[in-house]
Amino acid sequence: MRINPTKSPNTQTLIHALNTQAHEIVDTTEEYDSIVEAAKDKRLVLIGEASHGTKEFYHTRAQITQRLIEECGFDAIAVEADWPDAYAINRFVSTTAPTISAEEALAVFERFPTWMWANAEVLSFVEWLSAFNQSPSLFATNRTRPVGFYGLDLYSMSTSIHAVVEYLEGVDPDAAERARQRYACLDHFIDDPQAYGQATEFGLVKSCEQEIIEQLIEMRHKAYDYMKLNGFVAGDEYFCAEQNAKLVRNAETYYRSIYRGRQSSWNIRDQHMYETLKDLAGHVSRQQQHPARLIVWAHNSHVGNAAATEMSRRHELNIGQLVRESFGEDALHIGFSTCRGTVSAASNWDAPIEKKRVRAPLPDSYEDVFHRVNFDNFYVNLRENNEATELLREPRLQRAIGVIYRPESERTSHYFYACLPQQFDFIIHFDETSAVEPLDIPVHWHRGELDETYPSGL
Length: 458
Description:
Helix content is about 45%, strand content about 15%.
């Protein structure tokens, strides 16, 4: 995509057009009827977020997802979380009579950033999904299995290794011993995979790639034997174990790539998430005996079409682009936006969570334009052919806040150019948002950051 950023002379015209085309949001789920209607015949619905720590994004995403499950028969949710952690939630929501609470199930998210999934909004959704899977409504739309909750990400190399060995211990102890021997190559780095990546890239240790690939190949050769042990449950558990083995393979590649540059590691990660999504769709389709329909929860930067953003200049791709290229009209992409408020985020990786104040958007950015629309909260159907969507095609700055938020360097660390109607099918804007509430709230989170006017008061 060619982007020529200039100060737009069309901003006022765009604001006027949005005042006539935007759908105001007050506070009812029925207000998303147009989104649900657009999604009813899709295989995939990708729902984003403009930050990993905003309550309104999580809440609305859950509202839309509940309607897609109840009214449209969607089969599973795949989220930007590590496979083994999310699979623990899948076991909880799929169990007929859970022996633990939803909050205890979410305690599995114990590594940074814990608040991304262990928060009040996800807790509420997981409780709802567990109740739905135990209700007669489950099979009202041609389902033969519970609605699942799965992870797409690849950071859990250590946890996934343990999960593979634990699975094999139960079905094939000799194979479990061979897995231990192969994975022993990583023993010195099991709790610090980034150090492994650095050591291999600088030639200090041998790569474990061959041993990890051999482990995955052996599991695949024995897949049929493992799956026939106990019917449906065995098939599900084998699929989980194989995904963990694939995660170890891709994570090993990822950690070696992070010392080669952002583009390489970013693409490996998003390709892994896309491959996992395809594997999951195939698995659920085989179990349901009809094409699976999945909902994806991830950041805007993962579910929007990267080809419509500045990312394409850096030769970066993402799940949204790969889905757009493979599924086309069978997928729906939904993004979020906010102007100001508070957000749960850290100042550095692995640093404590803080309730940070979101700065007012940069002039002429998408967020700034949306702030000047007559409605505080609204959504826009970007698939409609009208003046608003045509004017939104002009590339503008768009803000992205991840688990780290650094207001002092916001322009360089949190903004990039995008063409919104090529990036998403719908955009949902909340003008003022609030920080998502972590389940394990540290004392300092309540304090928030210092006022922007500190220390002078100006």
